[in-house]
Amino acid sequence: MNTTITCSILLLLFTTAGICQTLESASLQGTLVDAENGQPIPDVLVRAAPEKIKRVYPDQQFAHATATDTDGTFSLTIPNKPQTYYAFSLMAIHPQYQTRRLQQEMSPGKNHYDLGKIALRHTLSLQGNVSGNKDIQGLIVNLKMHNKSADFFRAAAPIEHAAKIDATGNFNFSDLYPIEYTLTISQNGVIIAFVDAINPQTQTQISIHLPKLKTLHGTVVDTQERPIAEAQIYATRHRETPSGHSMLLASAKTDNTGNFQMQVLETKPQHLSLEISKKGYFSRVYENVEIGKKPLIVPLEKGLTVKGHVILPQGISSDAHYAVKVFPAETQMEPSLNPLVLRKPLLARHFPAIESAFTVDGLFSGTYTLYIVGDGISATGINVEASANSEEIFIIADRPGSTLQGQVLWANTSEPVPNAIVSRSWYPWELNPHDMSMTLDRFEVETAADGRFKFDNLTEKPYQLRIRAVHAALEETTERYQRTLIHKQVEIPAPGTAYRIYLGRQDGIPFAK
């Protein structure tokens, strides 16, 4: 009997039973070997993530995993639907080797990939010796990886390591990567040694002589030169290199006479600062602090308080909260899609929705703009004057939030665009004082299979939308997908209407990942 005919009949009869599932999956196999001696490495965790053709962002889930056997080989199955996936990423992880990541494009007619030998390099070690202190056993040595965002090691390797010093003053680190670290030695929570940059690729051993600590002392007073008790003081040593780290050296509190004293690591003035804080007062940061000079006199100014009442929309959940966000009166309240434009509030205070009364303290004398915001609440602003004799203010913020929704379609076919990234502009009242550009991903969503998207809890204001989508075409000769990133920016006059947004090739630029 013809084998081809037999297989075809079986596939036809048992498609629903899952026999044809192999046509929509791909097998990966390979061998993990030591880069130095070529020997196989067992027990390597191998994780894979198929990447979708129409997605702007690559898949980072790595949900498919296995481990290498005693011969260092692995076999793994991943989805391989021809119209869904175009590539896969593979990550090899072992505690004694540097993590390695590979990416390979997939062909629609291919369901087996032999990756051959994949070489892993050993992680690095660092040995050290500490001297200069009679009681060194048990001191904590800490390594923290430098902030190099473009370096893959920050995603694949442990960011921090810690070790104890033994009775002979020795310490040892393993599982390090060829990247710079900041080293600190601490005793009872106080840093007593600091090395801004160490690279275990070039420094396998290090000797550290502990310096003597210096006494830093001073007095905290108010604007009338009266001592302030229980003020908190933090001494920080700042980084010397762009990718290094700042470290909190020590902390202290003022006594009843406003005086403080702390032992700190000797540090050049340009790398040392003090932060002084006390509830009800404005925090102060003093740069370029000199140790050993005359006692510091640190004045703190007491903040003013604004009190008020607010009326919120009906139907707000009893366990909901609202926030009062404070801006300088001259702040421009325009929407932005630029991650570098962060007109953040000076401060934000949060209150339960069941409490209509609010208090905002810690303000200088002057004029401010207060915004009432929260889930289901349309942002409402009011100008207030902060002074010693401020009266209670009354704010009506009873308008509910709105929904901005729409559908993204291809211009030439009117077909929906799934997996498109829709980013919306934000207003300053939607930010928090601690926000950075990396936290703005909360203002973007991905379109569903029908191309639809939605943003909730918005204010009845104009918004800008930036849409990014991938247009993919299969090249017959190479059996590879040519992907183009299509992007478009549109102005939305107000939420509440379902908008249709059409994308065409004329909006695109070559896709580069």
Essential attributes:
5 domains; flat; Immunoglobulin-like; 2 helices; 3% helix; disordered N terminus; mainly beta; five-stranded antiparallel sheet; 513 residues; four-stranded antiparallel sheet; single chain
Indicate how many domains the architecture comprises: 5
- Reading off the top of the CATH hierarchy, the class of the largest domain is best stated as Mainly Beta
CATH superfamily of the largest domain: Carboxypeptidase-like, regulatory domain
Average pLDDT works out at 88
Instruction: Give the CATH topology of the largest domain.
Output: Immunoglobulin-like
Counted by DSSP, the helix tally is: 2
Instruction: State the share of residues found in helices, binned by percent.
Output: under 10%
User: Proportion of β residues?
Assistant: over 45%
Radius of gyration: 30 Å
What is the overall shape? Answer: flat
Major sheet details:
5 strands, antiparallel
Strand order of the largest sheet: 31-30-33-34-36
Structural class: mainly beta
